[in-house]
Amino acid sequence: MDTAGDKVVGSLGMHGTENILELTDITKIFSMGTVDEVTALDNLNLKVKPGEYITIIGSNGAGKTTLLNVVAGTYPPERGRVIIQGDDVTNFSEYRRAKYIGRVHQDPKVGTGANLTIEENMAFASLRGQRRTLRRAINEKRKRYFRDLLIPLGLGLEERLRTMVGTLSSGQRQSIAVTMATMTEPVLLLLDEHTANLDPKTAQTVFDLTEMIIQREKLTTLMITHNMECALRYGNRLIMMHRGKIIVDIDGERKSKLKINDLVSAFEQAAGEKLADESILLSRCEM
Ligand SMILES: Nc1ncnc2c1ncn2[C@@H]1O[C@H](COP(=O)(O)OP(=O)(O)OP(=O)(O)O)[C@@H](O)[C@H]1O
Ligand SMILES: [Mg+2]
Questions:
Q1: pLDDT for 107-134, tens place per residue?
Q2: Residue ranges with CB less than 5 Å from ion ligand 2
Q3: What is the pTM of this model?
């Protein structure tokens, strides 16, 4: 069979549907062979179908961010394969995977360049995975396109294309980061508690914006949240992680009917212990 044929077979899921993402037997170990050795991902398996919007929850240190890092190629896993749209990207650098992935981090500073203007930031984002130069990425037509993307934010940033991003507020900056992460229609959108560092009102605005874009573009999304209520309210599939493993995975109608108590029971049954991190239980979903 030729490679193209292999690719298709490789991307076929259990039900014959094509998976956007397949993680197979992923193990990630930090500080291997030292007293600080930690298995952040422990033989983890995950298949994600097109259009799935997965909320990921779990205590501090459960492995949530490591999971997104392994998907994005920030570092390779010690074992296992990462397949995106049928392509085995396990050995691809973060840069080579960029054409598949849009990502927003917890810290607005990570996703945007402080010493670049809004239009330069957006031009960079629009070049993701391409070889064009920045100069060619900013022309009148593209400026109109950038403005059209900024108008729905309702922050007036479309009139400030030449403003340095470093002078903007965290909320404005994170709104631009969300826009940049989604403007090239990524195959996968990765969100890591991307509203956690914002005040409640700004968090709400940025979250509504994210939600609007995910629904409009039907983006396949993995969103980490530190709040059970939010994990239940948003998305169409929910994953709970514990000690580097996925211990709860619920989708469809079961997810929409799920209550916090069910989730706590599911955790305690799967983990064989009480939920120690009360913050994921008690904090309200403000969004
Ligand atoms: N770069 C690193 N070097 C060493 N250890 C790491 C590194 N990154 C993560 N770890 C460890 O791996 C484990 C999983 O960390 P991770 O950041 O994935 O957890 P998390 O679920 O995102 O937690 P949080 O809710 O606190 O963000 C933790 O024990 C952490 O200390
Ligand atoms: Mg984390």
A1: 989 989 999 999 999 999 988 766 666 6
A2: 64-65
A3: 0.90
